[in-house]
Amino acid sequence: MISKPVERVDDELRKFLDDMCATMYAAPGIGLAAVQVRVLKRAVVIDVSRDEEARAPMHFINPEITWVSDELSTYDEGCLSIPEIYEEVERPSRCRVNFLDYEGAEQEMECEGLLSTCIQHEVDHLNGILFLDHLSRLKRDRITKKFIKARRLESTG
Ligand code: NI
Fold this sequence. Notes:
The structure is a single chain. By secondary structure, this protein is of the alpha+beta class. It has 3 helices and 7 strands, in the order H-E-E-E-E-E-E-E-H-H. It has a single domain (11-156), classed as Peptide deformylase (Peptide Deformylase, Alpha-Beta Complex), CATH 3.90.45.10. The chain has a 5-stranded antiparallel β-sheet. A two-stranded antiparallel ribbon has the order 4-5. Strand 4 and strand 5 form a beta hairpin. The longest helix has 19 residues, at 137-155. The N and C termini lie far apart (33 Å). Bound molecules: nickel (II) ion (NI). The site of nickel (II) ion (NI) has 5 residues, from helix 2. Nickel (II) ion (NI) binds at residues 79-81, 121, 125.
């Protein structure tokens, strides 16, 4: 499922972004794409500060990754859509992203570290890609089996 571009940044969208942030913090998570709350809009919220006292939410509307570094880095990724599964994923360690901010202004940002990983993970969501899709087929099959087995155990008590 490919999410559709946001056409207007208005109060209605800002209310939606605020709701997304509340969902992300409640999870708790460090990033959320609109498709994860079943809205097919190209909107992402991220807060990598992991600081409950000083929250620093970032809003990315129609984010587009325009450049990635050759250098790669590996993070133990998880996803609110695939609970309790964490796997190491290799991605470009830095990237540049164009987007509209909370006010609808055009922005360009160079990201590194956890923010770089997170924005790439979230933009993937907008394009219907999950972090498991970056793993080898063997690894993915193993995780899928584990996931199905866990579900089965749950349903049988
Ligand atoms: Ni995710």
